[in-house]
Each structure stands twice: as structure tokens, then as C-alpha cells.
Amino acid sequence: MTMPFIPYGQHRIDEEDIEAVVRVLRGEWLTQGPAIAEFESALSTICEVPHAVAVSSGTAALHCAFAAAGIIQGDEVITTPLTFSATAAAVAYCGGTPVFADIDARTYCLDSREVEKKITARTKAIVPVDFAGHPADYSALRAIADKYGLLLIADSCHALGAKYQGRPVGTYADMTILSFHPVKHIATGEGGAVLTLHDRFVEPLRVFRHHGIVKMPEQGGWYYEIERLGNNYRLTDIQAALGLSQLKKLDRFVERRREIAALYNRAFAPHEVVTTPYEASDVRSSYHLYLATLDVERIGKSRREIFDALREQGIGVQVHYTPLHLQPYYAKTYGYKPGDFPRAEAYYERAITLPLFPHLQDADVHRVTNVLLNQVSYATA
Ligand SMILES: *Cc1c(COP(=O)(O)O)cnc(C)c1O
What is the CATH number of domain 250-380? Predict the structure, then answer.
């Protein structure tokens, strides 16, 4: 008998979500209507920030944020190589240069000491990623940003619902990026948002979302001007209604993710060859991903062999991510090479992402741990 395939992540849609979407479909607005404002207001309440600007994806949100931050040709933005391509690509969309700095070996987030070494006269912003749902080291990063007059822009696409020193995502950085892709904490199909603490970014974000259009009604009801190019990064009301409905379940989703992470942690605790994710004492991770790292030397198998064996047995493992400096585009364009970020590379050689999503059952978790422990166990026996 073949067991059903368990993906690494999956959205959870219920009848209430479906009703919310249908209500929009029966109404007057499909895009940029009242649901957008409601969704933005709910996001800013939950994240305890004054402003949220909803856009069509996390990638769009990054592009809007860098544009609003004034990133242009020649500017440098320091970020981690251990992220999804969009974090660095959005810097390049603005003409800026992504500059990588190595990670902390425990949290897999940007190491603030490495960041400081990369600062030049052209540096404009620091962009930490709350890797796997664990907030980056914000007090250290804030101190560096303030010391050098840089913006702190958080890619928190993994971390909606997380807390750092008791405060929610959105409150640590000048701007904070969220994604509502179906594998993330809440789903809108595609969708994203920029949260900001500062009034001055709100208008530029909204203008960039809508083609760079600045309306000037005093010059006529039709009249607008475009001083800088924007894009069509609008979220639809259909998506915003889904997002609003999903947000109501965020606490439950995060609670269940943490429960599952604890189940995995307990199962792997006796096995030294599996390192479970670290959670700093002043942090509450929202566990977008469950990352185990494998002591491949002691196990005597490559990560590839273990990965393939799990996939063959219906466990949808993943690897997040190949460090960006090893991707041909970034290597060629910016001259990076293997060995440049040894901690990110060491992590990458050993990492495996296990299934984690709110409706994953305890029995599924046990199946995953059994299959993985079978693969690594002869080394520990
Ligand atoms: C998902 C993700 C993005 C991009 O979000 P999309 O909504 O897929 O465009 C950016 N950065 C990180 C770290 C992500 O995980």
C-alpha cells in the first residue's frame, strides 16, 4: 500500500473563507474596493503598526519597499544569501546592488557582525530575513542601522505571527514585508503587504503600487501626473477578503505550527545526528518551516540520498534554500563564488525541510519522524 504524499507546506481554506470570497464576487468591487482597506487595517492592528499597504505578492511588496526607500542605481543593500531570490532580486529591480553577509550559525538569520563588515559609503539599507519564522537579531541590527544612518527593511515573509522581545513582526523595522502565498501563514492565492512605522513611506508605497500615478484633482478630475514609474501591484478585493478571513485564524495556525515543531523536536532530541531548530529565548518563532540539519558525516549518507529516500516514501521534504551567491545569476552578476559565505554553505549542505502546516495530523508527524529516523538511525545504533 502506498501512503499518501505529505507536502512540506499547504494552505488551509474553510467554508468561512469561501463565503467571504463569494460575498465579494456578488458585490460591486473586484479590485481596490473596501476589502483592501479592511484587510490593511486588520493587518496593521494585528502587527501593531500604524500602516499596512497590501499588494499583489511578497515580491511586489519588496519592490515597493525598496522603491519607497529610494533605492537607485549604485546603492547597496545588505542582505542574507540564505533567502528566496525575490529578496535580492527586488534590490536589483531598483538598480541597486544586493550585497550578501553571512548568517548566524544557530538562527540562520543575518549575523549583525558580518553586516557591519559590509557597510560602505553606498550602503542604504539592511534587509534581514526572519528565516523559517525566527525573527532576526533586531536589537543589534537596529543599533548598526542607526549608527550608519541606514534603513532597516525586514523580509518577514516567513514570520507573520512571530514575536521578538514580546512584540509582533512589523514593529522592529522601518518597513516589513509579508507574503500570503499558499505555503505561508495565511493565504490569499498570491498576495503581500508592506507594513511601516513611518507616515512618509505610505504615499510612495501606494503610488508605486499603482503605476506611479499621483492624482491632482485641483487641475481637473481626470488629471494625474507620473513623476517616477510604478507598476501594477494591486491586490484584488477577492484576495483581500480571503486574507481578512484567514487572518482570524492566524493565532490558531501559529499555535498548531508550534505544536508540530515541538513534536518533531521531542522525537529528534535523543538523536545527535539530527539538529533541531534553535529558538532564542527572547523570540517566539512562527515556524513557517521546520528545518532539521543532518550530521551527514556521522550518518554516512549524503543529504541527497536521505532527501530522495524520504521523497520515495511520500514525504514531501524540501531544501530552503540554495544560498543565492551560488545561483548562477548572482554569481555571474556580482562575482560571488563558493566559499564566500561558509556558514550559509555549511547549513545548506545539511539542511532538510520537513512537512509543517496547521492541518498536519500528529500521525503524519510520527510517520515523517519514523521515516527520517530510519534513514539516519544505523549511524546512531
Ligand atoms: C515567499 C517569499 C518571498 C516572496 O513572496 P511571494 O509572495 O511568493 O512573491 C520573498 N521572500 C521570502 C523570504 C519568501 O519566503
Answer: 3.90.1150.10
Please work out whether the CB of residue 318 comes within 6 Å of at least one atom of ligand 1: no
Residue the block writes with cell 515573509: 157
pLDDT in tens, 122-142: 999 999 999 999 999 999 999
pTM > 0.85: yes
Angle of helix 202-209 versus helix 58-68 axis, rounded to 10: 130
Q: Give the nearest ligand 1 atom to 184 CA.
A: 1
- What fold characterizes domain 15-247? Aspartate Aminotransferase; domain 2 (3.40.640)
Whole-number Å distance, alpha carbon 124 to ligand 1 midpoint, is 22
Q: Based on C-alpha coordinates, what's the Rg of the chain?
A: 21
For the chain, give every residue range classified as CATH 3.40.640.10.
15-247
Report helix, strand or coil for 192. Answer: strand
Q: What is the pLDDT of residues 217-256, one digit of tens each?
A: 999 999 999 999 999 999 999 999 999 999 999 999 999 9
